[in-house]
Amino acid sequence: MIKTGDSLPDITLYAYSNGEGACAIGPNAFSIRERCQQRKLVIFALPGAFTPTCSERHVPGYVAAADAFSAAGIDEILCVSVNDAFVMNAWGSSLQVGDAVKMIGDGNGEFAKALGLSQDLSARGMGHRSQRYAMLVEDGVVRHLAVEAPGKFEVSDAQSILAVIQQR
Protein backbone atom coordinates (compact mmCIF):
# COMPACT_ATOMS: atom_id res chain seq x y z
CA MET A 1 0.00 0.00 0.00
CA ILE A 2 1.20 3.50 -0.79
CA LYS A 3 2.34 5.44 2.26
CA THR A 4 3.39 8.91 3.31
CA GLY A 5 6.58 9.89 1.50
CA ASP A 6 5.89 7.75 -1.58
CA SER A 7 5.48 9.23 -5.06
CA LEU A 8 2.22 8.66 -6.89
CA PRO A 9 2.35 6.02 -9.61
CA ASP A 10 2.23 7.18 -13.21
CA ILE A 11 -1.35 6.09 -14.00
CA THR A 12 -3.73 7.47 -16.60
CA LEU A 13 -7.07 8.70 -15.27
CA TYR A 14 -10.01 10.26 -17.09
CA ALA A 15 -12.15 13.38 -16.77
CA TYR A 16 -15.21 14.38 -18.75
CA SER A 17 -16.73 17.79 -19.17
CA ASN A 18 -19.91 19.06 -20.76
CA GLY A 19 -17.88 22.10 -21.81
CA GLU A 20 -19.38 25.42 -22.72
CA GLY A 21 -22.78 25.01 -24.30
CA ALA A 22 -23.93 21.70 -25.73
CA CYS A 23 -20.58 20.30 -26.88
CA ALA A 24 -19.24 17.41 -24.86
CA ILE A 25 -15.53 17.26 -24.16
CA GLY A 26 -13.85 13.99 -23.38
CA PRO A 27 -13.28 11.73 -21.82
CA ASN A 28 -9.89 13.36 -21.45
CA ALA A 29 -6.98 11.19 -20.37
CA PHE A 30 -4.28 12.60 -18.11
CA SER A 31 -1.32 11.37 -16.08
CA ILE A 32 -2.02 11.76 -12.38
CA ARG A 33 1.70 12.14 -11.73
CA GLU A 34 1.96 15.01 -14.23
CA ARG A 35 -1.19 16.67 -12.91
CA CYS A 36 0.36 16.81 -9.45
CA GLN A 37 3.71 18.29 -10.50
CA GLN A 38 4.48 21.55 -8.70
CA ARG A 39 1.00 21.56 -7.22
CA LYS A 40 -0.71 20.75 -3.95
CA LEU A 41 -3.78 18.51 -4.29
CA VAL A 42 -6.23 16.65 -2.14
CA ILE A 43 -7.26 13.36 -3.70
CA PHE A 44 -10.08 11.46 -2.13
CA ALA A 45 -11.50 8.17 -3.32
CA LEU A 46 -14.60 6.22 -2.57
CA PRO A 47 -16.22 2.92 -3.51
CA GLY A 48 -18.71 4.18 -6.06
CA ALA A 49 -20.71 6.93 -7.67
CA PHE A 50 -24.29 7.37 -6.50
CA THR A 51 -23.73 5.27 -3.36
CA PRO A 52 -25.27 6.57 -0.10
CA THR A 53 -22.33 7.68 2.08
CA CYS A 54 -20.40 8.91 -0.96
CA SER A 55 -23.33 10.98 -2.25
CA GLU A 56 -24.74 12.23 1.02
CA ARG A 57 -21.59 12.94 3.03
CA HIS A 58 -18.21 12.41 1.36
CA VAL A 59 -18.47 14.50 -1.84
CA PRO A 60 -20.75 17.22 -0.37
CA GLY A 61 -18.28 17.76 2.48
CA TYR A 62 -15.48 18.54 0.04
CA VAL A 63 -17.72 20.79 -2.05
CA ALA A 64 -18.73 22.75 1.08
CA ALA A 65 -15.10 23.09 2.20
CA ALA A 66 -13.61 23.93 -1.23
CA ASP A 67 -12.98 27.60 -0.38
CA ALA A 68 -11.29 26.64 2.89
CA PHE A 69 -9.03 24.18 1.03
CA SER A 70 -8.15 26.89 -1.48
CA ALA A 71 -7.35 29.31 1.35
CA ALA A 72 -5.09 26.62 2.84
CA GLY A 73 -3.08 26.46 -0.39
CA ILE A 74 -4.72 23.51 -2.14
CA ASP A 75 -4.67 23.91 -5.92
CA GLU A 76 -7.24 21.24 -6.72
CA ILE A 77 -9.52 18.63 -5.13
CA LEU A 78 -9.97 15.37 -7.03
CA CYS A 79 -12.65 12.77 -6.33
CA VAL A 80 -11.64 9.41 -7.79
CA SER A 81 -13.81 6.34 -8.14
CA VAL A 82 -13.73 3.07 -10.05
CA ASN A 83 -16.38 4.34 -12.44
CA ASP A 84 -15.97 5.67 -15.97
CA ALA A 85 -15.58 9.40 -16.63
CA PHE A 86 -19.13 9.68 -18.01
CA VAL A 87 -20.63 8.32 -14.78
CA MET A 88 -18.38 10.54 -12.68
CA ASN A 89 -19.47 13.59 -14.67
CA ALA A 90 -23.17 12.71 -14.34
CA TRP A 91 -22.72 12.13 -10.61
CA GLY A 92 -20.91 15.45 -10.20
CA SER A 93 -23.71 17.20 -12.09
CA SER A 94 -26.34 15.58 -9.89
CA LEU A 95 -24.46 16.77 -6.79
CA GLN A 96 -23.84 20.21 -8.30
CA VAL A 97 -20.11 20.11 -7.57
CA GLY A 98 -19.32 22.77 -10.18
CA ASP A 99 -15.60 23.55 -10.18
CA ALA A 100 -15.19 22.82 -6.45
CA VAL A 101 -14.27 19.16 -6.96
CA LYS A 102 -13.04 17.46 -10.13
CA MET A 103 -14.81 14.14 -10.68
CA ILE A 104 -12.26 11.63 -12.00
CA GLY A 105 -12.83 8.18 -13.47
CA ASP A 106 -10.57 5.23 -12.67
CA GLY A 107 -12.74 2.98 -14.82
CA ASN A 108 -10.47 -0.06 -14.76
CA GLY A 109 -9.40 0.41 -11.15
CA GLU A 110 -5.75 0.76 -12.18
CA PHE A 111 -5.07 3.68 -9.84
CA ALA A 112 -6.69 1.92 -6.88
CA LYS A 113 -4.66 -1.23 -7.61
CA ALA A 114 -1.39 0.67 -8.09
CA LEU A 115 -1.90 2.37 -4.73
CA GLY A 116 -2.70 -0.95 -3.06
CA LEU A 117 -6.08 0.50 -2.10
CA SER A 118 -8.50 -1.67 -4.08
CA GLN A 119 -11.11 -3.89 -2.52
CA ASP A 120 -13.30 -6.71 -3.75
CA LEU A 121 -16.97 -5.88 -3.27
CA SER A 122 -18.18 -8.69 -5.55
CA ALA A 123 -20.22 -10.20 -2.74
CA ARG A 124 -22.27 -6.98 -2.77
CA GLY A 125 -22.56 -6.92 -6.58
CA MET A 126 -20.10 -4.06 -7.03
CA GLY A 127 -16.99 -5.86 -8.30
CA HIS A 128 -13.53 -4.48 -7.60
CA ARG A 129 -13.59 -0.94 -6.23
CA SER A 130 -11.43 1.56 -4.40
CA GLN A 131 -11.23 1.73 -0.67
CA ARG A 132 -12.40 4.99 0.90
CA TYR A 133 -9.42 7.28 1.57
CA ALA A 134 -8.08 10.81 1.26
CA MET A 135 -4.56 12.03 0.71
CA LEU A 136 -2.64 15.27 0.57
CA VAL A 137 -0.23 15.26 -2.37
CA GLU A 138 2.50 17.85 -2.86
CA ASP A 139 4.50 17.79 -6.11
CA GLY A 140 3.48 14.17 -6.69
CA VAL A 141 4.50 12.97 -3.21
CA VAL A 142 2.00 11.74 -0.63
CA ARG A 143 2.31 13.95 2.46
CA HIS A 144 -0.67 12.52 4.35
CA LEU A 145 -2.82 9.44 3.79
CA ALA A 146 -6.03 8.60 5.66
CA VAL A 147 -7.55 5.21 4.81
CA GLU A 148 -10.92 4.26 6.25
CA ALA A 149 -11.55 0.95 7.96
CA PRO A 150 -14.16 -1.12 6.08
CA GLY A 151 -17.62 0.43 6.43
CA LYS A 152 -16.31 3.52 8.25
CA PHE A 153 -16.31 7.23 7.42
CA GLU A 154 -14.16 8.86 10.10
CA VAL A 155 -10.77 9.98 8.74
CA SER A 156 -11.16 10.77 5.03
CA ASP A 157 -13.87 13.42 5.34
CA ALA A 158 -13.17 17.00 4.29
CA GLN A 159 -12.96 18.45 7.80
CA SER A 160 -10.45 15.83 8.98
CA ILE A 161 -8.17 16.42 5.98
CA LEU A 162 -8.54 20.19 6.23
CA ALA A 163 -7.49 20.02 9.90
CA VAL A 164 -4.35 18.08 8.91
CA ILE A 165 -3.49 20.66 6.24
CA GLN A 166 -4.05 23.59 8.59
CA GLN A 167 -1.76 22.04 11.21
CA ARG A 168 1.15 21.72 8.73
UniProtKB/TrEMBL annotation:
Belongs to the peroxiredoxin family. Prx5 subfamily. InterPro entries: PRX5-like, Redoxin, Thioredoxin-like_sf, Thioredoxin_domain. This is Glutathione-dependent peroxiredoxin. Residues 2-168 form the Thioredoxin domain. It catalyses: a hydroperoxide + 2 glutathione = an alcohol + glutathione disulfide + H2O. Keywords: Antioxidant, Oxidoreductase, Peroxidase, Redox-active center. Its EC number is 1.11.1.27. It comes from Pseudomonas machongensis. It is an enzyme of class 1 (oxidoreductase). Thiol-specific peroxidase that catalyzes the reduction of hydrogen peroxide and organic hydroperoxides to water and alcohols, respectively. Plays a role in cell protection against oxidative stress by detoxifying peroxides. The keyword Oxidoreductase applies. The lineage of its organism: Bacteria, Pseudomonadati, Pseudomonadota, Gammaproteobacteria, Pseudomonadales.
